[in-house]
What we know:
Layout: H1 3-18, E1 23-29, H2 37-49, E2 53-59, H3 63-75, E3 83-87, H4 94-107, E4 110-114, H5 125-130, H6 137-144, H7 146-165, H8 169-178, E5 183-186, H9 193-200, H10 202-206, H11 211-221, H12 228-232
Parallel strand pairs: 1-2, 2-3, 3-4, 4-5
Helix pairs in contact: 1-2, 2-3, 3-4, 6-7
Amino acid sequence: MRHDDVILTGLRGSLSRLQLDYVDIVFANGNNVNNPMEEIVRAMTFVINQGMAMYWGTSRWSAMEIMEVYSVARQFNLIPPVCEQAEYHYFQRDKVEVQLPELYHKIGVGAMTWSPLACGLITGKIVTILSSVQGYQWLKERVNSEEGRRQLAKIKELHLLADRMGCTAAQLAIAWCLRSEGVSSVLLGVSTTEQLVENLGALRVLTQMTPQTIGEIDTLLGNKPHSKKEARA
């Protein structure tokens, strides 16, 4: 089956299950190098023109792939993507802070980020879960690795900073993500209403993300990526 047929069939099925006429945005998740870019862009343009979606975006695509798909859209007078869905948290920074801002300034592509709490690592909940359930071997290895232990030590310091600011560790982490240039929105994953309300409190914390606070977090993390311009300087 052609990739554009897969997109159309999948979206129609999703709309039927959701009992909706359209969605605000549809994402192309991951990119198989064997899929012609033109097919993907034509399919997304079709679903938008048919009123099945308002916009489309990419998910887990490289900056090079996003530039290519944008060029294809412009070449054939088709609709380009408006944002990239990317993983972003304290320990995953380079793509959102260095690569995507360049695209944001060049072609207006924003970022919709996911996993602001690093699969629960930042709040400490995942450590409790891993100690009480079977499976998740890959995640256990990640947490118990040398790098994982270093990250947990930094997270303890971040919890202390959150206490001083009068917020939770989750609120601080989400506000930190929102403060980044080009980040249009942060996707949240919650299991209770209480968690959702807590996470939404990050909007209040965002006003406290001063250059001094951001600098303190950068110093604590020690992993601030540098742009090409900064590297040349």
